[in-house]
Design brief:
The protein is α/β, with parallel strands linked by helices. The protein is built from 10 helices and 15 strands. It is globular, with a radius of gyration of 21 Å.
Amino acid sequence: MAHPAIRTGIIGYGLSGRVFHAPFIHGLPDFELSAVCSRQAEVVHERYPDTRVVVDVEPLIESTSLDLIIITAPNTLHFPLAEAALKAGKDVLLEKPSVTSLQEIETLTQLANDHDRLLTVYQNRRFDGDFLHLKALIDSAELGTLKHLTSRFDRFRPKPQDRWREQPGPASGIFWDLGPHLLDQALHLLGAPDSLQASLKILRPGGNTPDWFEIMLDYPELQVTLGSTPFEAGPMRRFNARFEQGSWQCWGLDPQEEALRAGQMPWQNDYPSAGQSQTAHRHMATEDGEITIQSDNCAPGHYQAYFKALAKAVNTRAEPPVSLGDARALLYTLELAEQSSAEGKRLSWRYPTL
């Protein structure tokens, strides 16, 4: 049985709303891009001329003609906007990080349950091709058991940028921008660690918020290292996965983001050809101990899959693509990493989820 299109409003039309949400809401028949809250009406209408644009957020939240609200506003606004939307009877999709504290996501979880509303978070990096490829390697045991994983999200941005993400305040800085990607992937792939140790620093002159971080996650017989630096001018090695029988490395980012930033739409046949392809290699040990090397293409990424799973969750009340248990565990881990860095010691992971 076909469901009517999910009438969707997006709060915010910056990078996140413009690149990571609107193209999929507009392009998939499961949704209708009904409204956008933005002060850039002309920019929205350049691409979506039939979409209603409002300046104030209250009319959008209270509108009886919307089913789902996507919140891409600055992080500190996520909680009050989600709270208002849930109370207004709307399903809610939060851009990552969902909110600025564990207490806030626990409060929203209870509110969503009380109002029988769907609440989920946009963790699109679960649908990157490199991550899907790594998951398939682990599941298939082609290279044996995973023993040591390094996952990085590096950039060359040696000077701080004048943007809200890098201003002092709750859930600000590069750690809260890129850390949710790296930590969510690790938790989703491997589950909860036994403990973690983290170091967060400001390395750029004039920086106001942490712009460099390293996090070590301890698992039984497995070590995971996550990190980011703003001083990587060469190729970024996104993953380095070491198994019992070989290793797998991947350089660069999934091309979907670059393609979307360039204006290539996900419904176009050659999407995401406007993004640069990743490079990957597999190193395997032979029976006589020699190491062979071969190129290893990543599986295609598929951000559309997130939104298709979201549509199913909205229409049938099935589990959303990111559960609230996962959302709470991630916020707990982000706060635990900050505590570990501040105290300079390893801390046990004890949150009762996952």
